[in-house]
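Notebook entry, structure prediction.
Reason for the run: the old model in the group folder had no record of what sequence produced it. Starting over properly, with the input documented here first.
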Amino acid sequence: MNPLIGITCSHQWEEPRRFYVHTAYVQAVAAAGGIPVLVPYQDDSCLEAILGQIAGLLVPGGSDLDSSHFNQELHPKSGIIDPWRDCLDLAMIRGALARELPILAVCRGSQVLNVACGGSLIQDIESQIQEPIKHQQQAPAWYPTHEVAIEAGSLLARIFETTSLRVNSFHHQALDQIASGFRVSAAAGDGVVEAIESVNHRFVLGVQWHPELMINGDPAMGKLFVHFVGAAKER
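New structure, fully documented this time:
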């Protein structure tokens, strides 16, 4: 049987109220041989039961993470916050790590992964780092707009078989202090961290860009999901 891959859902609290996830994540997991299972916010006992059934966890992009989770006040340029999504992602990431489940975290997901393990965030790139490049592109979602340098010997380098990659970009927050047990595996030219990976787990990887949106234009981006689902199968 193909592995069940949990995908955490965003939450819309205005009417019509709903839980949702971008179709591209579901399609990318399915194309890689996984069975997507959407995971909405619910009580901890239900999340524990889900964690006991899935073989891997995908944490998608979304709204800003509440800065209280890394002991800071909200920056004036902080965006929309979804407390339900924050609680869901933090609980699922910590539960998946405890169970040695493979994790792929995308954009916001990579930021929550870092915070869940004790790291912190830059709350607004433009006002908090010097001479930033453009990280909120005004181009088609599939189109790569800047380069990232990948660390040789990293999991990411082994997946893509290169140390340089062009990616899309849709974020104004970024990783700051990197959590213990993680290494930076890619960075943009302005120093913004573009990927982290665990040094203690076989496959726990966070990327700042959106590979799921690039697959149609750059099929090589599908390798990320193939390796992720493969790690879930092997588990």
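Summary: The longest strand covers residues 182-188.
The old model has been moved to the deprecated folder.
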